[in-house]
Design brief:
five-stranded antiparallel beta sheet, 2 helices, disordered N terminus, three-stranded antiparallel beta sheet, mainly beta, about 5% helix, 8 strands
């Protein structure tokens, strides 16, 4: 049984390793994602079709910081977007550039992404302790019979 605490999220039990779905809906999680205000996020959501990509190209390789990256460029509607992905065992995005072609000034949004692949956390980071005035509210599955 999960519990809700007043003014807090629900507490739910999960297995040791929980992998979220790719691009879950923000409405479902009632939360926002980093860079979710960027056009690339919208382009990559499952609801967006790759059929809408008008052109794509491998633009070569370049260094982002110390990492050699493959550079890809895409055109989709009024937006051009580029992504640099690290070459090797950890192919992670390192840079995103979004260009709004609907605006004559062609404004760009540039995001650099740094990854920590070996983070360390104390167990207390993942332990929820409700405030002393919180009241647990039981939640049970909906009876569909």
């Amino acid at each position: 049984m999960a519990h809700l605490y007043e003014e807090f999220d629900s507490l739910q039990h999960a297995s040791e390793r929980v992998l979220p779905p790719v691009f879950p809906s923000e409405e479902h999680l009632e939360s926002s994602f980093p860079m979710s205000d960027r056009p690339l996020y919208t382009l990559l959501k499952r609801s967006s079709s790759v059929d809408n990509i008008e052109s794509a190209m491998n633009a070569g390789q370049d260094f982002i910081g110390q990492d050699l990256c493959d550079h890809y460029a895409f055109r989709q509607g009024k937006v051009d977007w580029q992504i640099w992905i690290t070459v090797g065992e950890a192919p992670l995005p390192r840079k995103l550039v979004i260009t709004n072609r609907a605006d004559e000034a062609r404004p760009q949004s540039v995001s650099y992404i740094a990854w920590n692949l070996k983070p360390t956390f104390k167990d207390t980071v993942f332990k929820f302790t409700p405030p002393k005035d919180a009241r647990a509210i039981g939640i049970r599955p909906l009876d569909t019979k």
